[in-house]
Design a protein that fits this description.
heterodimer, A: 111 residues, mainly beta, 6-stranded mixed β-sheet, 5-stranded antiparallel β-sheet, 0% helix, B: 115 residues, 4-stranded antiparallel β-sheet, 11 strands, globular
């Protein structure tokens, strides 16, 4: 199975940059996903990494190092609407690709 | 395209009662997931279907939880009897296939309160 760790909470000011780390231990790996979840809402997909390196999508970037079992999500030019929980999820190697989620990192953006 | 539909949005029941949740995935999505999300935690996978077959139910409390996906489309998740610790949001998600970069799309969830 997978053991996925991420910090519980991070606070940053509007316009700043925040980096959310995620470490995982897995018996197999078929991709790492980041989701955003606003309070009371469903998770929405942000990014996907399966190969080592950086994937950039506008203000959001995600990095993966498979050998270290490590990923991070970088949020640039923070806006108030970025206040949310950010979930790291690992997809297993099974033929059916089970998603396992971390506990989530609550990001609080202050004025 | 229409997203994942779930109903009801909210449900309050007394302990030992039964409850059922319904999910209609995105059209054509073969993989369907049910997750339980307790406040302040990440989603926990309860059961995963590939078409109408179960491929993972290792974390489903089978003494009280059951799920089915008849005809490989809609799915229902049932709890009988409910316990206080079942209070959570139950999320349904679907994806077009079980591998690769196909993300899971989530429904709005059903918030269950057991009193």
């Amino acid at each position: 199975g997978q053991n996925i760790d991420q910090p519980t909470e991070m606070t940053a000011t509007e316009g700043a940059i925040v980096q959310i780390n995620c470490t995982y231990q897995t018996s197999g790996f078929n991709g790492l996903f980041w989701y955003q979840q606003h309070a009371g809402e469903a998770p929405t997909f942000l990014s996907y990494n399966v190969l080592d390196g950086l994937e950039e999508k506008g203000r959001f970037s995600s990095f993966l190092s498979r050998s270290k079992g490590y990923s991070y999500l970088l949020l640039k030019e923070l806006q108030m609407k970025d206040s949310a929980s950010y979930l790291c999820a690992v997809r297993g190697p099974d033929s059916w690709g089970k998603f396992q989620f971390g506990a989530g990192t609550q990001v609080v953006v202050t004025p | 395209e229409a997203g994942v539909a779930q109903s009801p949005r909210y449900k309050i029941i007394e302990k030992r009662q039964s409850v059922a949740f319904w999910c209609n995935p995105i059209s054509g999505h073969a993989t369907l997931y049910w997750y339980q999300q307790i406040l302040g935690q990440g989603p926990k996978l309860l059961i995963q279907f590939q078409n109408n077959g179960v491929v993972d139910d290792s974390q489903l409390p089978k003494d009280r939880f059951s799920a089915e996906r008849l005809k490989g489309v809609d799915s229902t998740l049932k709890i009988q009897p409910a316990k206080l610790e079942d209070s959570a949001v139950y999320l349904c998600a679907s994806s077009s296939r079980g591998r690769g970069n196909t993300e899971a799309f989530f429904g709005q969830g059903t918030r269950l309160t057991v009193v």
